[in-house]
From TrEMBL:
Species of provenance: Staphylotrichum longicolle
ANK repeats mapped onto the chain: 16-48, 49-81, 86-114, 116-148, 149-181, 186-214, 216-248, 249-281
SMART domains: ANK
Gene3D superfamilies attached to this UniProt entry: Ankyrin repeat-containing domain (1.25.40.20)
Protein name, entry field: Uncharacterized protein
């Protein structure tokens, strides 16, 4: 191999990886990486598919190559595309030794970018790497830094269901009501995912059970209801959640559960006092929501629970139903009239209603 490099430009640019060092790093060839560096290869050469050799090795999980590159002067602060900074990439993978090495080499523990995870602490928290989270916090990571998809590390850990990391972050001063990110609040993130123990922990630490996020589902109860997490719904109600609180798009938890076909949640909410005839700008009442969404079993449940017929709930009787002899014909006509509406969020994630839903 040494003879093959005789007279060759080890920093020649070209090809998929941009240069020989990045190619060798991406394939995990430790001895080739060492040889190229000995022959003067630029350890921080930019270009190619991964941006630089260090990111190439990180992306392909070659920890030993990462160590070689760092010991030979790889820039720990070089940002490369979707992978962000090296410390974020290593934290996301849970590479405690590499994270420690990066910190020893001067990596900024709080450096941020516009990638999904924003910073190293959020990346480690989202992936459930508790020891890396500890290491980052011990080295000065800002527990309440705002950035990334989840906005903060606590929301990321709450969504992922990592209870020990949630406890650790709270112990280090994480704001339990920090607002921002895809779910708005940590409580909403945990409720959406059905992590009941974390929901209870957050509430015990002062989470606002009725906080409204900027997304269309609003409060935590609505998030749990649309996902079908029956025990989480019960817990939130026991802790004082407003059962009729409308979301930012007008829907309430009952309407959200109806849209998703969560029969067990609908029954639970009705049992706990949800207003069956509340109207929103989307629906005349719960019965209207069920018909719009084609939820026949829920239609029958609502009728049995005393839902007002649409003609008695403030909905004007359409002229094309004048010849209908039955109430159901009229109700179906109303559902047809409104069926063209596209309801955002109704298919945003898989339905995983608890196995006890319909019990």
């Amino acid at each position: 191999m040494d003879s093959l490099l005789w007279g060759a430009d080890v920093n020649a640019q070209g090809g998929y990886y941009g240069n020989a060092l990045q190619a060798a790093s991406a394939k995990g060839h430790q001895e080739v990486v060492k040889l190229l560096l000995d022959k003067g290869a630029d350890v921080n050469a930019h270009g190619g598919a991964s941006g630089n050799p260090l990111q190439a090795a990180l992306a392909e999980d070659y920890q030993e190559v990462v160590k070689i590159l760092l010991e030979n002067g790889a820039d720990v602060s070089a940002q490369c595309g979707m992978r962000g900074y090296p410390i974020q990439a290593a934290s996301l993978k849970g590479w405690e030794e590499i994270v420690e090495l990066l910190l020893d080499k001067g990596a900024d523990v709080n450096i941020q970018d516009d990638s999904d995870y924003g910073n190293a602490l959020q990346a480690a928290s989202a992936a459930g790497h508790q020891e890396v989270v500890k290491l980052l916090l011990e080295n000065g990571a800002d527990v309440n830094a705002q950035c990334g998809l989840f906005s903060n590390a606590l929301q990321a850990a709450s969504f992922g269901g990592y209870e020990e990391i949630v406890k650790l972050l709270l112990d280090k001063g994480a704001d339990v009501n920090a607002q921002g990110g895809i779910f708005g609040y940590p409580l909403q993130a945990a409720s959406w995912s059905g992590h009941q123990e974390i929901v209870e922990l957050l509430l015990d630490k002062g989470a606002d059970v009725n906080a409204q996020d900027d997304n269309h589902y609003g409060n935590a109860l609505h998030h749990a209801s649309v996902q079908g997490h029956q025990e989480t719904v019960r817990l939130l109600l026991d802790k004082g959640a407003d059962i009729n609180a409308p979301g930012n798009d007008g829907r309430n938890p009952l309407h959200g559960a109806i849209e998703r076909g969560k029969h067990g949640i609908v029954k639970l909410l009705l049992d706990r006092g949800a207003d069956i005839n509340t109207s929103t700008f989307l629906y005349r009442n719960a019965l209207h929501a069920a018909m719009v969404e084609g939820q026949q079993e829920i239609v029958e449940l609502l009728q049995a629970r005393g839902a007002l017929p649409l003609e008695r709930s403030g909905s004007p009787r359409p002229s094309n139903s004048a010849e209908s002899d039955s109430l159901m014909d009229y109700e179906c006509s109303c559902a047809w009239d409104y069926g063209e509406w596209e309801l955002s969020g109704s298919e945003s994630s898989p339905d995983n209603e608890d196995s006890t839903m319909d019990g």
